[in-house]
Known about the structure:
This protein is of the alpha/beta class. The chain has nine helices and seven strands; from the N terminus they run E-H-E-H-E-H-E-H-E-H-H-E-H-H-H-E.
Amino acid sequence: MSLEGKVALVTGGSRGIGRAICLRLSxxxxxxxxxxxxxxxxxxxxxxxxxxxxxxxxxxxxxVADTDAVQAALKEIxxxxxLVNNAGITRxxxxxxxxxxxxxxxxxxNLKGAFTCAKxxxxxxxxxxxxxxxxxxxxxxxxxxxxxxxxxxxxxxxVGFTKAMAREYASRGITVNGVAPGYIVTEMTxxxxxxxxxxxxxxxPMASLGSVEDVAGAVAYLAxxxxxxxxxxxxxxNGGMYM
Length: 243
């Protein structure tokens, strides 16, 4: 699958799953815009890794929760062919103790941010009559999780958003899909105590955590020509944890 000549924007692309997606899309030939909102050194490292494998990358800093910043960034980029809404945050806590600000912060970044970026990126996609929008949701949006009511609600909201947008833009040559990772090896999971990691693995039929490359592979399929007739779907990458 080749993405030569295509421009991709990956929000939250500086590390973890986002970095792996940037590297995979670049390897397929796309010019990649690496978005970040903090830790510029991580974004620079992602750009360096892309260039080392012969790809082209630019760094673009903006907060997906800031509508004005999103619009300015998309205007700076110009035409976007592939948008991966990967940026996300957590503000975990039991419902009874959850602050309203924790609810709002997660909703604004994880759900509203995807809406704002997709709305802005779709303009050039409609003109070109070709586009790929891929929303990174989560197994938590399907199965739920105690202490993550805000995160689960936002990620579940992305699923409905994906379906509605897919119906609206299908006639314009734009596909809209989701990828729902399960437990993936990242900086966050690596910090978990060994006993917690083992408990998580016991709940997964494949008895192991996934890799960031597993998620990037799913995104690559949906972004390339092989996924041209797939829209409104969510591809689960969770080792069988949720079926």
